[in-house]
């Protein structure tokens, strides 16, 4: 029996617009295995970011079920907070680094709110991540001393610090040029594969789609085309 890190089962999202209903997602289903790197593509307004927000316990669905690991999300928002803290890592369009913390402290902040309080274990894991991402020698640098690509690599390390079941990346290359954007996605793929995590990336950048395992296209709220690079 296949074990999935993330399952979306018949997810719909409907907004009331005056007397009309606007269906953003229409019975979307998706399953992602550990170690699988998935891309979601489609035109603006097609429901990509809404789907990612529902998968990340940031937004409720109108219908359907979200299962992360062995946890089914319900309407208990306190449960959502725990799931986000323990099971999900987020990478956003902007790195959203804290300007007065150096790279090491950015990661230690995640350690402090994690369920695992073993400081030495976290420090060793942080160093391993930074080494994998080519940042270990920059551990004491502050964000204003980093390039755009380096800042986004720190954001990748931060997303993996809580050892999540699922990584969700929302347009992680949007603020980067082509070569830097590709490097960032290569880094995400490297850590996903090494740690056997599941990852979903929403993107408009078709130049990086060869780096993912499966490509889903959303249009008009429906997933209706699937391509596999596996």
Automatic annotation (TrEMBL):
GO cellular component, one term: membrane protein complex
Name the record gives this protein: Putative ABC transport system ATP-binding protein
Pfam families: ABC_tran
Organism: Anaerosporobacter mobilis DSM 15930
Family stated for the protein in its record: Belongs to the ABC transporter superfamily.
KW ATP-binding (keyword) present: yes
CDD domains: ABC_MJ0796_LolCDE_FtsE
Keywords in alphabetical order: ATP-binding, Nucleotide-binding, Transport
SMART domains recorded: AAA
